[in-house]
Write a sequence for this structure.
């Protein structure tokens, strides 16, 4: 009895530590953004405070601030991405391992995802937790392929090379990894539905009316339907997230805006104003918590923790039916409205 209680306390303490760490890093990132210029200025220009990183910039997640970095989920931004940079820094993968291409790393993490999904689909807690850890390794490799590609192309900071072959290969590999996880979730849901003796039964909610009594269990969906709903939500939020990364990158991180009657310095100043604005920081923070990678991490956390697995997964599925799509639609609406106004401000256009 002591071991499960101790384990639960250990899990809770670790999650609380991660939460505090992410909040602290978000605060540091916000302070960094307020002193960050879209384009670096001369050293003798006092309009922007110089930033002295205690470690090499590749290892510091708040050194080079980009649109994608601000919209990247917390584990990837603050843990997996710096860890990928550290391994590359120590082993010299980008410089010396010329035979190892970013696309090869992308394909490799699909294999890791398939092995992880196979472990998650098993009934034992240890196998599921091992599978979740393998998916974190897959996430680290996903960061590594991007870091290697950007280093070899001399691109600083987190940026999406939209339209390149590597961008499409990475997207396809991410999709295959997600499909592997969805198959594992389907197997878990089907096993739980067919073998309820091994799991605690969900509480039955009864709705009484003046004419009849309806059990919520009668409205329970099939495991295939539940899995497809989660997969659909992942697809929609991934499409929206990548879309706004691309839009904001083009608006705020592109030098040649081709705007008549506006100098390049004026364009940089306007881009910086938008980048530092509280509205943009707020929107990117919400995308940080509700993007594709974050939602996958929430599902993996539900699988990793001990206890009533059936209940946690079905509660997650219920969220994808209404609450999470509602959040996504609201976030898309606010992001679109903000982008239109930011575009008009940067381009000096009037909105009637």
């Amino acid at each position: 009895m002591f071991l499960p209680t101790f384990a639960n306390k250990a899990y809770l303490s670790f999650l609380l530590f991660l939460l505090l760490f992410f909040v602290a890093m978000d605060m540091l990132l916000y302070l960094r953004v307020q002193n960050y210029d879209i384009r670096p200025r001369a050293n003798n220009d006092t309009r922007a405070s110089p930033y002295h990183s205690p470690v090499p910039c590749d290892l510091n997640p708040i050194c080079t601030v980009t649109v994608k970095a601000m919209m990247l989920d917390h584990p990837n931004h603050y843990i997996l991405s710096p860890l990928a940079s550290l391994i590359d820094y120590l082993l010299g993968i980008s410089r010396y391992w010329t035979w190892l291409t970013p696309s090869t790393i992308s394909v490799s993490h699909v294999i890791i995802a398939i092995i992880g999904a196979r472990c998650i689909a098993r009934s034992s807690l240890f196998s599921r937790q091992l599978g979740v850890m393998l998916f974190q390794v897959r996430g680290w490799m996903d960061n590594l392929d991007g870091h290697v590609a950007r280093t070899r192309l001399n691109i600083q900071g987190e940026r999406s090379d939209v339209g390149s072959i590597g961008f499409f290969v990475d997207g396809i590999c991410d999709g295959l990894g997600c499909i592997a996880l969805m198959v594992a979730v389907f197997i878990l849901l089907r096993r739980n539905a067919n073998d309820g003796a091994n799991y605690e039964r969900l509480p039955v909610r009864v709705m009484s009316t003046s004419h009849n009594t309806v059990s919520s269990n009668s409205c329970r969906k099939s495991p295939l339907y539940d899995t497809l709903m989660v997969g659909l939500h992942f697809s929609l939020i991934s499409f929206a997230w990548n879309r706004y990364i691309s839009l904001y990158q083009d608006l705020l991180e592109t030098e040649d805006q081709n705007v008549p009657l506006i100098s390049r310095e004026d364009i940089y100043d306007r881009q910086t104003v938008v980048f530092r604005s509280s509205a943009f920081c707020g929107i990117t923070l919400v995308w940080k918590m509700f993007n594709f990678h974050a939602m996958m991490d929430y599902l993996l956390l539900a699988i990793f923790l001990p206890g009533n697995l059936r209940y946690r997964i079905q509660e997650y599925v219920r969220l994808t039916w209404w609450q999470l799509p509602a959040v996504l639609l609201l976030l898309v609406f606010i992001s679109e409205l903000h982008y239109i106004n930011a575009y008009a401000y940067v381009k000096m256009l009037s909105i009637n």
